[in-house]
Amino acid sequence: MRTLSDSSFCHLNIPEDTNYFIQSETLFVTKWNWDYEECLTFQKQAQLLVQKQRNLKVYIFCNHPNCFTLGRGNERGQDDLVDFDPAVEARLSLPIHRIHRGGGISFHHTGQWIFYPIMAINESHSLTEHTAWLLGLVKEILKENFRLENVMAANKLLGVWIERKKLASIGIGVSRFVTEHGIALNLLYNDEMFTELKKINPCGMTSQTYTCLDQVKEDISKNIVLEFHNVAIKKLCGEEMNPSPV
Description:
- The chain has one domain (23-239): BirA Bifunctional Protein, domain 2.
- By secondary structure, it is α+β, with helices and mostly antiparallel strands.
- The protein contains 6 helices and 11 strands.
- An 8-stranded mixed β-sheet has the order 1-2-3-7-11-10-9-8, with helices on both faces. Strands 5-4-6 form a 3-stranded mixed β-sheet, with no helix packed on it.
- Strand 9 (159-162) and strand 10 (165-175) form a beta hairpin.
- Helix 3 packs across helix 6 (224-241).
- The chain has helices spanning 36-52, 86-91, 127-144, 191-197, 213-216, 224-241; strands spanning 19-23, 26-31, 57-62, 67-73, 96-98, 103-108, 112-118, 151-154, 159-162, 165-175, 178-186.
């Protein structure tokens, strides 16, 4: 197995308590309960690397301590952050991170599985295809591996849904044709986070719109984040070994 020191990824600052491996031209990085700002810094490092070597990819898997993120709305190319009522912000007990991605206010918590793929956007992998790929990956695993019926990936609604409930949210940022941010799937209910959600409308939707896998399917293990992660890693490694024809 290739080591970081003798690879194209040698200049990345991998934090402690991180699992990583390299397959082909892709670095897989996993760190649970990763501080949001620290993870964002690593995303930016990875993005700069891929901007210089566009054949490389960095796949980041994690979850974060409970927090909110505030994006730029739905206007691509606009750097201004969406308005957020300071009075509402004052009522929230969790931190808000202002970031460069589409969408309004969203949320992260320890019961999520998060995937941030840092990779180049080009003619063979457009931003629309990138979004569909992420949504399709999560939908496929939920349906085929966890036998979840009536699950739907919706590009226009930017998420993975079961009936009228949203399980996963997606928000992508792009700089110099390289992606950042990604998809967050709610697996385990987090009481603190869902209590806070009642104070706002994440991505313009009521808090009741959002749910978790353990709320819609019985007998979900407390280790579901790791179980889902292991399946996702196998699928993604398979894609790297056997890429779809362009």
